[in-house]
Design brief:
CATH class of the largest domain: Alpha Beta
Strand order of the largest sheet: 8-9-20-19-18-16
Shape: globular
Helix content: 10-25%
Radius of gyration: 20 Å
Number of strands: 20
Largest sheet: 6 strands, antiparallel
Number of domains: 2
Distance between the termini: 31 Å
């Protein structure tokens, strides 16, 4: 499986043979080199580049063969790349709209700083797309302008997990919570939404590496309608919001990665 994913990451970084022309002028000479597990990838013409508007690295995306476990179709009418991803836990359908920064996949919503774009008939995706969706570790060598990609096991973030049934009564509160989140300096800011009568909620923040930087039982400090501010370390972390019937039966909620704002939903949507 590791070999398959390594091959997939390598292929996803290679230009589609059916695409032609150069993007040098469009990329403003912000080209970078790419390593996959220590090996430099050769780009014959079009290159990965740093978008001067966002400062984010974009890489070319090509059609991926069925042998690599991914089927890709181009919906030209709607400008959407349609991908079918398969792993031991099942198949996942992913629509990658051109120009959009929010992508929904199963129980996860990915939010990117840069959208997928088309330049000279080539599709480019943000480097974080590969990291978030395909489970690769990304390291940026700013001195040498090299992106280093290490492949993990097949994307754990796509794996199936239990989802509560859709709960229309509490979903507006979950959506309001997620939409209230933003980063200001070294803090994540948000607001506790109004909770339907008869339900309770839980709120906590966990640092990705340092348990001493966790903030638990925040529902005791912040009440519905109140804004909150939580310090975020350089490690990043995730903020969990859950709604329960009574005090124990969680029926809805979300877990949001900070600072990327990728969100895992607790209930079907």
């Amino acid at each position: 499986m590791r070999k398959l994913v390594s091959s997939f990451i390598a292929v996803i970084l290679v230009i589609a043979a059916s695409m032609t022309a150069s993007v040098d002028a469009a990329t403003n000479n912000q080209e970078v080199r790419v390593q996959v597990e220590g090996q430099f990838i050769d780009f014959p013409d079009a290159k990965p580049f740093i978008d001067p508007k966002t400062g984010r690295t974009l890489v070319p995306l090509r059609f991926v063969s069925e042998q690599l476990g991914v089927k890709v179709e181009w919906d030209g009418a709607n400008k959407v790349v349609k991908m079918e991803i398969e792993d031991p836990n099942g198949k996942y359908r992913l629509d990658l709209p051109i120009g959009k920064t929010v992508i929904d996949l199963k129980h996860i919503t990915f939010k990117f700083e840069s959208p997928a774009v088309i330049i000279d008939d080539r599709t480019y995706v943000p480097l974080r797309f590969i990291s978030e969706v395909f489970g690769a570790e990304i390291e940026w060598d700013g001195v040498n302008r090299v992106v280093k990609i290490e492949v993990n096991e097949y994307p754990h973030k796509l794996s199936s997990r239990f989802l509560h049934p859709k709960h229309e009564l509490t979903q507006p509160a979950v959506d309001a919570f997620y939409n209230s989140l933003k980063i200001e300096g070294d803090k994540v800011i948000g607001k506790v939404p109004t909770i339907p009568k008869g339900y309770t909620y839980y709120l906590k923040y966990k640092d990705d590496k340092d348990r001493a930087k966790d903030f638990l039982n925040l529902e005791e400090k912040y009440k519905p309608g109140q804004s909150f501010s939580i310090p975020v370390s350089a490690n990043g972390g995730h903020i969990d919001f859950a709604i329960a019937k009574g005090t124990v039966e969680i029926i809805n909620g979300c877990s949001v990665d900070i600072p990327t704002f990728t969100v895992r939903w607790r209930a079907e949507r």
